[in-house]
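Both lines are quoted verbatim for reference:

——
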Amino acid sequence: PANLDYVWSKNGTVLGNLSGVGRNSISLLDSIFSKPVVIKVEIVRGEEELLADTSIILTPTSPTLAVYENNPLYGFMFHREVGEGYTLEGKEVTFTAFPFFAPSTKRQAPNLSYKWSANNNAAEAGGSVTYRAPEEGGGRASIRLDFNNDKVIMLNLIKNFLIKFGNEN
């Protein structure tokens, strides 16, 4: 791969600054009002010889916010996303938020904001939060998670769910 010549194009326009010898991958940024685009790559030898080519249609996807339990023994419980409700079986639970399809890069990480609140009380910051059940009784807690990136216009994602704990029916 390092010795092959790659020619990348977007909607039929060759991306000369992204093409070249050894350039077997690309990264693209698009506007907030994205439309489907056709990305094509050709592997060529010399001026005329086409060795291989392929193309793909990239369709924009709206960002979504998913929350998963971070179990101390098993890790992230990716097989079971927290939906509208979660039943707490132990004494405490740690949740972690994953913003999927949200524009972000490592250099933007300081601009990402996570705010967790329970029953409209003061918010806790961070990508993860731990909640503990009271010693006695049962009940419910209404959880709200707000995620935003202050470098991306109009990117504010919200996730709401209930935690049921104790003897609550």
In short: The chain has a mean pLDDT of 86.
